[in-house]
Design a protein that fits this description.
The protein is mainly α. It has a single domain, classed as Growth Hormone, Chain: A, CATH 1.20.1250. The chain is elongated and about 55 Å long. The chain starts with a helix and ends with a helix.
């Protein structure tokens, strides 16, 4: 159950990133802006994700991994909804920045939870299963985001 839940969290971040890449031209038309401006939706997400990975993991160490994994999931989910309902490019980009923060909490804590949930003799295998399943998830993200 732990492996499935944490794998789904990592799946959501991968799917979200790759699906948006494919949707940029259609979203730019829908929001009456340029594709160049819409690239900030991707760049902002990645900047926030990269900037908050270490603090996100550290918050899990300080405040509890379970609590912060749930917090990251809520942030990620609500900002995903906000981005989907955004009436303008500016609001979409703001939602994506915050979504990157949620992803930065989810990603390191998903790995930490898998590492801590299993005894040492089963830990390497579970981590390998989680890691090995990443490439198919990336492919599903690339194929599901067409406008």
């Amino acid at each position: 159950m732990v492996l499935a839940a944490t794998s789904m969290a990592m799946f959501a971040t991968n799917l979200d990133f790759f699906a948006l890449n494919l949707s940029i031209p259609g979203m730019a038309r829908e929001l009456h802006t340029s594709t160049t401006d819409m690239q900030w939706a991707i760049s902002g997400f990645m900047l926030a994700l990269g900037s908050f990975l270490i603090p996100g993991g550290r918050l899990g160490d300080i405040l509890g991994r379970r609590r912060m994994l749930i917090t990251g999931t809520v942030i990620f989910g609500l900002t995903s909804l906000a981005g989907g309902l955004a009436p303008s490019a500016g609001l979409l980009i703001a939602a994506r920045l915050l979504q990157g923060v949620g992803a930065a909490i989810l990603f390191p804590l998903s790995i930490a939870v898998v590492t801590n949930a299993f005894p040492e003799d089963r830990r390497k295998r579970r981590s390998a299963i989680s890691t090995a399943s990443q490439p198919p998830r990336r492919q599903s993200g690339r194929s599901s985001g067409a406008p």
